[in-house]
Amino acid sequence: MSYSRPTSTIPVPRYPNGIACIAVVGKQNNPLLIQTFGNAADQELKYHYLAHMSCDYVDEKLRSGSKSGDLYLGLLCTIESQNVYGYMTNTRVKFLIVIPTTVPTKDSEVKAAFDVIHSAYIDLLGNPFYDPDSTQMVASPRFRARLQTLAAPVAS
Amino acid sequence: MSSALPTYSTTSVSGGSINNAPPSSVSAVGATSLASGPLLVAEPALFGLLIEMGPALEAAMTGGAREAVFFKMEMLGYNVGQRLVERLAKDHARFTDTLDVVKFICKEFWMAVFRKQVDNLKTNHRGVYVLQDNNFRWFMNASGATTLQDATQAMTPFLWFPCGLIRGALAGLGYATVVMAESVGIPQCTFQIKIATGR
Questions:
Q1: Buried/exposed A114-125: b ≥16 CB within 10 Å, e otherwise
Q2: CB B174 within 8 A of CB A91
Q3: What are the beta bridge partners of residue B181?
Q4: B100 in contact with chain A, both atoms CB, cutoff 8 A
Q5: Which residues 55-74 of A have a C-beta within 8 angstroms of B?
Q6: Contact residues, B window 162-181, toward A, CB-based 8 Å cutoff
Q7: CATH topology of domain B48-195
Q8: Which GO terms describe its biological process (chain A) (predicted)?
Q9: What ipTM did this prediction achieve?
Q10: Domain limits for position A63
């Protein structure tokens, strides 16, 4: 009956550092948040474009490989030496993580990162002043701050 | 089933992380998210809120018809349902079809909100689902009416919020629906969901 999150099998959550961009795309394929990190900070327009393109790949993934029923969609595409990983919630909100191909990444790390994004999004919905149907970009600094931690270099 | 309540009975809702601590390092945030326990709701407080919601809204909406109050309560439920379903559907696999979604409502959603599962689910396989709850949790402390008209009439104000809740949950999952409720006698309650065919 309790819905506490299952303790992860990953011993210590590690996220692939070197994330270039995290994008949150809403139900109607409207961008809710495009957050760039590191030296990609000045190329936001490019990531808007990338997120928009990735929506098609998400649809394609859903049409073809829906056997697993997993929310994690895996590697969607590789564009201009950037890997784009996708994740779609049951409420049709999509999360995208863009990582340069030069960064070694494990699937489990990307899944863990998506988990954090999903939790952050759920808490954003908990804000009564946030309209889930809004098509505006998300302005919440707390949400952005939580995503910021994903790109922080992992202390080993 | 339940006795008088000397202490707070609780409903555990999702265990999403509520950490407001500033994230200092990745592993700290990760640890907090994974280790936070279930969030608990004090049921008496919830009942008090629900009971008060009807009269308070009626008083606030001067000159409004009774239907306007019902509409407002349904919209309140809708908003809550939308947000709640995101939290509850987080760890669920992708839904395959409409029946899968309704079953989720009957089991996980109902369990989280009403502490039990729906007792009976009927469908005509053409978009109409009937959910029957023989011991509706929110009627637990209500008294009186035992005939169809009396019960539905008396409990109508308190049924619109759950209707909105269900409608909001289904809307969150991508289904436009119409949800109605009726009761043949406290504590029984039936919800009828009409899903627009063709998603």
A1: bbbbbbbbbbbb
A2: yes
A3: B191
A4: no
A5: 66, 68-71
A6: 172-174
A7: Muramoyl-pentapeptide Carboxypeptidase; domain 2 (3.30.1380)
A8: endoplasmic reticulum to Golgi vesicle-mediated transport
A9: 0.81
A10: 21-142
